[in-house]
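My main concern about presentation is that the manuscript never shows what a single data entry looks like. For the editor and my fellow referees, an illustration may be useful. For illustration, here is how one protein appears when written out as sequence plus structure tokens:

***
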Amino acid sequence: MRTLAVVESVKMGETWVEVRLHGKKDHRDVRMLVDTGAIFTKISTQLAKDIGVVPDEAVKMKLADGSICDAGVGEAMVEYDGLAKRTIPVLVGPGEQLLLGVTTLEILRLKVNPVDGKLEPFVPYLFAARP
């Protein structure tokens, strides 16, 4: 079964994607804002409960407005376009907005094309001398 791979660029600089998030008890197809300014992927407390993502660490999280709030860190599996399924750290925090952060993009070996706002695969760089 292939996961939805709808990529939609709504406003200049905004990219929305459909991904499948797997927790310990269920999965959901969700629409997320790709946030290249966010290190972690963020899901809502309700979504975490629904799919079985259980935070095992408490952290402070800085919001875009500069305020700081509490969040939990758990693990989920993310699937994009049915091609990649990887376990990622997710912040479980306040608000319903779902954000797909840079760590997840890197784990999936995806990047945002700045021209069309779509996700595309990339070949990771390894800065090492050849033998």
